[in-house]
């Protein structure tokens, strides 16, 4: 069976950028910068981008392109006993896909509310009590299904399904050629309006004001590396699958640099947007900016709606912002589902249409757990363990495998042979030493803190079942699939 291919280089880069640019760029990066020394954070962030982001992206693009398979097939070609790592990454993608779609569903709802600001003046009460109907629930006692959350999720799944079902060129590439330019135009349009608002520049000063005393703080460096790994969609099967569809003559080095630079540039642009809004909001409410800043879900669904209430022309700027969130979410969701779908196509020899239907069908049913009263709590707990334990573990193992078992030098020479410009020895130093050391520090800190303090005040039984238990189950199932696989002479796709 001949492997599908991207129709154009621009199509591939837009899809890779669409995968990397997600909700985290808009609501996680600005807060991380603000928390970790403002303008000074950009120094460790750029260092992390050069020593971890670009080398990791180069490595995954090279592996996918050279070995022509989704993550499980790629790792099994490196060594038969390594197929489990590919499946562990596919499971990470599958789990992220089923809860990420809930947040896209919320953004779709808020897009409709934003025309009339029907969230009212108490945006906090509206989001948690009226919209999510968060009761006395826990991550294991979910309460009842909320149709007003489930219906927008159906819409999100429908768009993702159409893109995956349509194939690499006809579906994914076409979707990203619409979604990515649309996202950039909307964000630039919002910024053009917002920077002229009173107080907006104070917000930007707050974001970019360097606090160089933080440069010596190991936590700040750890946050910078963590942000790079979170934001680039590396380490969970997506970029390997996407690059396996590249034509034989592809400029790997250029593609990797462009994908990482566009993604990081977008993060900084999103920071300008968010802190411009927060600066204006602080001035309107006569509060210090430290009181209006928040991160994550609270920023998008509580703080920003409160800011939209104060904005001139809220019925234009509000829908623009939430449509941008929906678009950023959908482009990432499509790539996450493709990572799972392509692995099943490789393994089971299913047709794309069958694999897409099964993955999206099962994914939709499982994702309904997040459209319940306790959905946010379930999402919060699972997201913490997937991102801070499973994903970082997967990245670390992948670096050790490629750096020490497979020879990073081979990856570098392969990429250099087919690229317009060559990367030097720094690539191997980063893959073998710098990135694994930083990741090992971040991961061990996360593990020690989580063992000692738990997370988010959740009951130990919930942590054991939905946190540690889930990660352990993913690992065990991945190993079982690996053991059950017959050593096969892989047909080159």
Can you give a write-up of this model?
This protein has 493 residues and is mainly alpha-helical. 75% of the residues lie in helices and 0% in strands. The protein is built from 19 helices and no strands. Residues 489-493 have low confidence and may be disordered.
Entry keywords:
493 residues; mainly alpha; 19 helices; 75% helix; 0% strand; globular; disordered C terminus
In short:
With 493 residues, this protein is an all-alpha fold. Helices cover 75% and strands 0% of the residues.
Structural class: mainly alpha
Radius of gyration from the alpha-carbon trace, in angstroms: 22 Å
Mean pLDDT across all amino acids: 93
**H-E string:** HHHHHHHHHHHHHHHHHHH
Inertia-based shape: globular
Task: Enumerate the spans where pLDDT stays under 50 for 5 or more consecutive residues.
Answer: 489-493
N→C terminal distance? 6 Å
Number of strands: 0
Q: Beta-strand level of the residues, as a percent range?
A: under 5%
Largest sheet properties: none
Give helix % range. Answer: over 70%
SSE diagram, text form:
Layout: H1 9-20, H2 23-27, H3 29-35, H4 42-67, H5 71-78, H6 83-113, H7 123-131, H8 147-165, H9 167-194, H10 200-208, H11 218-231, H12 238-243, H13 252-284, H14 296-310, H15 314-348, H16 352-367, H17 375-417, H18 426-453, H19 460-484
Helix pairs in contact: 1-9, 1-13, 1-15, 3-13, 4-11, 4-13, 4-17, 4-18, 5-6, 6-8, 6-15, 6-16, 6-17, 6-19, 7-14, 8-9, 8-15, 8-16, 9-13, 9-15, 10-13, 11-18, 13-14, 15-16, 17-18, 17-19
